Amino acid sequence: MYSVKVETRFSSSHHLTGYEGDCARLHGHNWRVVVEVAGKELNKTGMLVDFTRLKEKLDEIASKLDHIVLNEHPHFQSTGLNPTAENIAAFFYSRLQGNFGTNQVQRVEVYETDDYVAAYEPD
Predict the structure, then answer these.
(1) Integer Cα distance of 35 and 54 in angstroms
(2) Is the pLDDT at 123 greater than 90, yes or no?
């Protein structure tokens, strides 16, 4: 099995509804997102996935979250989900999966800070 990873960053704010603590108030993060794609076969060039193509897709998604209040993004408004790091990871996964042929998105990690990270992996 081969795998590749790319990462991107974006800045945005959020608040957590129903949470008792500081995160209930509006606050911001400089988020870091790391995506891993895996598969069994390399293409004719010897690559699993072109890093540039994966990075472009990741950046495209992140650009729609950059410098906004995440609670106001249509996805979080329509689902009623809190924009937690866990839900943001699942959001990235759902938009990336299926874009790389038979290769699968294995894991999406979302870092709120250098010390706090949440991940989403499919079952």
Answers:
(1) 9
(2) no
pTM over 0.90: yes
User: In the numeric block, which tokens belong to residue 4?
Assistant: 């590749």
The answer, yes or no, to whether residue 70 has pLDDT greater than 90, is yes
Q: What is the CATH number of the domain that holds 116?
A: 3.30.479.10
Q: For residue 85, give its domain range.
A: 2-120
User: Tokens 């790319």 sit at which residue?
Assistant: 6
Q: Specify whether 23 is catalytic.
A: yes
Number of domains in the chain: 1
Type of residue at 41: E
Q: Does 86 participate in catalysis according to the annotation?
A: no
Task: Express the helix, strand and coil content of the chain in percent, nearest 5 each.
Answer: 30, 30, 40
- Set 23, 29, 60, 75: catalytic member: 23
